[in-house]
Amino acid sequence: MCGIVAAVGSDDVLPILLDGLKRLEYRGYDSAGVALVEAPGRLRRAREVGKVAALERRLSTAPLKGLTGVAHTRWATHGQPSQDNAHPHVSGRIAVVHNGIIENHHALKRELIAEGYTFTSDTDTEVVAHLIERELHRHGDLLGAVDAAVARLEGAYALGVIDADRPGRVIGARHGSPLVVGIGEEGYYLGSDPLALLSVTDRFLYLEDGDLVEATRTGCVVHEWDERGGKRSPAVREPMRYEHDDPSVGKDEFAHYMLKEIYEQPVAVANALEGRLGSDQVLIEAFGPRAGQLLGDTRQIHLVACGTSYHAGLVARYWIEELAGIPCQVEVASEYRYRDVVAPPGTLLLTLSQSGETADTLAALRHARARQGQTYVGALSICNVPGSSLVRESDLSLMTHAGPEIGVASTKAFTTQLTALMLLALALRQLHGGDGELTARLVHRLRYLPTLLGDALKLDADIARLAQRFSGYRHTLFLGRGAQMPIAQEGALKLKEISYIHAEAYAAGELKHGPLALIDASMPVVALAPMDGLLDKLKSNLQEVRARGGRLLVFADPESGLEAADGMTVVNVPACCRFLAPLVYTLPLQLLAYHVAVARSTDVDQPRNLAKSVTVE
Ligand code: AGP
């Protein structure tokens, strides 16, 4: 998704802007650009299609220099990736970078064209540049002009704006798309993500929806919108320290961030468990002061998320219903937000998100919030990014402590979400009268989970070999039953997003109701076979595949009784209890997707068309 960096400093800010853009590359983008005020009245910009490296090459032959600037990585929504559509967009003396979508841009464009403005791009953003320019003539001041312009915008935006005639100042605005202010020694900065600014600061102000910020070299003032008073007033936003390591330290010995993050999972899961396990139960107080009451009052759960986070939610439904006896409904956020949801009294809204900035998930939270007094007991988020919008807008948050995830394909964020969800299921069990023996057994097993995940990673070399064979296929079917069904879905998602091989997941029992028609020697089938009450049923489903000449790759418990045979490859996964099997079986599927993608020479960390944090609808 698009990335913003803006800076006002005491020295040339171009290196800071370019470094910020490189740090935002992981979000996914297709073009990049920068604009600087080189001297009062002299605004210059450079834009390139493709990677930030292309922009850097151009700047090395035609350098820009200035103390005030804005920069952007664009992920195309309106208008194809091209130099004209790349940001910053300029109108007269101002330059604008924008994340989000301006929904009423057609109407605004007509209005501006009628007033004589000329458009040079197909973007929705260009209307923002012209609107601000128009308002600048009326107000004479950039802050007032941005304020008047954003009042006309419908949709979502984070903006960075500079004025060539008044350098030394950057204006930011936030409504529905994230924006932070970085507080540095040598200046003030804006970023759509704190990661963009870690080379200059680890102190941030997290702007709230409706905020405008005016940053200079020595300070910043945030102006919030007072709905009741219908005017702006200065607001206090407490600085927060960024707690994670700086991920730009690199990939270490790994070829890709994704592989590094796959290997980080034993430690990440250990971090997610840290301080949350007692000797034979989960420490609910470690979830936060209100957790006991909120979870105790919960009668059912609406679990809402997107993509990989949604798959984590589907696994959690099995755990929460079996371990705590609490009904749990799981739904993709883009549907939930537009549905007339029936939430009976005592409903907990549980949102899951790695980034905490996914537009659909945030909208679902707000949709539920609007009805909170009547039916919801509250909103709990499980999230990886402290200070994110989702965390700030929830009553309670359980952080996953995965550390920054750079690869677009989610790996450690998923397994740490599952870990947090298992802790939640056990906490609900404790509060809702489940017997303590199973709880104690699972708490004990959770302590060994990081070791178990380390053992699963030892399959890497075997899977890399199998992946060579796999990389030639065009379609794949993934099968699982029970809580492994969502893991099959996650395996299919991983494969398609980074290798571009079409992959579908089915509950194995559904095979005979349709997808069996697809099975032949050109359709490999990946199946998950842990030791659980459904193993025999799954074996029958696998026979249905073999009888039709299908090629099976089965990840199985060593005691499953499944053995390699003609058309069937079996990979033994470390033995584990059925409750933790979803976590353990995830790792071989991640490795499979990774090695297939490498064999197909795709861009593993930044797959085509995808963005890390989907901040638009
Ligand atoms: C997963 O590999 C994807 N990149 C994607 O499905 C992602 O999980 C989804 O966009 C949700 O993101 P979130 O967890 O940050 O809300």
Give a verbal description of the structure:
The protein is α/β, with parallel strands linked by helices. It has 3 domains: 240 residues, Aminohydrolase, N-terminal nucleophile (Ntn) domain (Glutamine Phosphoribosylpyrophosphate, subunit 1, domain 1, 4-Layer Sandwich), CATH 3.60.20; 194 residues, 3-Layer(aba) Sandwich (Rossmann fold); 140 residues, Rossmann fold (3-Layer(aba) Sandwich). Helix content is 35%, strand content 24%. The strands form 4 sheets. An 8-stranded antiparallel beta sheet has the order 3-2-4-1-10-9-11-15, with helices on one face. A 7-stranded antiparallel beta sheet has the order 5-6-7-8-12-13-14. A 5-stranded parallel beta sheet has the order 17-16-18-19-20, sandwiched between helices. Strand 23, helix 17 and strand 24 form a beta-alpha-beta unit. Helix 9 runs parallel beside helix 13 and helix 15 crosses helix 18. It starts with a strand and ends in an 18-residue tail after the last helix. The relative contact order is 0.10. 2-deoxy-2-amino glucitol-6-phosphate binds next to helix 9. Its EC number is 2.6.1.16. It is found in: Cytoplasm. This is Glutamine--fructose-6-phosphate aminotransferase [isomerizing]. It holds the Pfam family GATase_6. Homodimer.
Give a quick precis of the structure.
GO terms for molecular function: carbohydrate derivative binding; glutamine-fructose-6-phosphate transaminase (isomerizing) activity. The chain is of the alpha/beta class and 617 residues long.
